[in-house]
Design brief:
Length: 100
């Protein structure tokens, strides 16, 4: 039987897919932040980010599964209904703007 030895370089590090974003949506003052249900990992956040980024006018989106939010940077900001449709089409629950 072959044995493989694995060395853990940094026990506190997580995979790139699940690593926390550098800026959480709540810390994004120039963005509109929306609540999204059902994100559990970085893969989920990537799908929400991609879906929202595909909308016309959106220059950047940052989804965070830890907070259940997506920050949308756009000029002009897309209609809430379009963002809701994109999030829902990606398989997640849209819960509306945060703080509205």
């Amino acid at each position: 039987m072959n044995e493989t030895e694995l060395t853990i370089v940094d026990e506190s590090a997580s995979c790139a897919c699940c690593a926390a974003p550098a800026t959480t949506p709540a810390e994004a003052p120039d963005a509109t932040v929306y609540a999204v249900g059902g994100m559990t990992c970085g893969g989920c956040a990537g799908r929400v980010t991609a879906a929202v980024t595909d909308l016309p006018g959106v220059r950047e989106a940052r989804a965070d599964p830890a907070t259940g939010q997506v920050a949308v940077y756009a000029d002009p900001q897309p209609d809430t209904e379009r963002i809701a449709a994109a999030v829902t089409a990606a398989g997640y629950t849209f819960a509306g703007p945060v703080g509205a």
